[in-house]
Amino acid sequence: MTNYEIMFIVKSTLDEQTLNNTTKDIQKLISDNKGKVIEFKDMGRKKLAYPINKEVSGYYYLMQVEATHEVIGEFDRKLRINENILRHLILKKESE
Question: Is the separation of the CB atoms in 92 and 25 below 8 Å?
Fold first, then answer.
């Protein structure tokens, strides 16, 4: 398994229940496919550098995960089609 760092931005116009469900579903995508969420950090609501789909702010989240390449590929695909996610970035961490 490989370590990855994932950052994603969720729409700020969502109600609290939808926001919580979205973040839980994202963590579940990793854990259901035999991956492991090592750390999940809520970085709060921040103003975006430029509007994305008419949104001017979003909730930022940072995850440290341990998963296979196939799990990350499927995770990336599902985040691309999720309408509540404005942007996401997946970085492979170097071995120490």
Answer: no
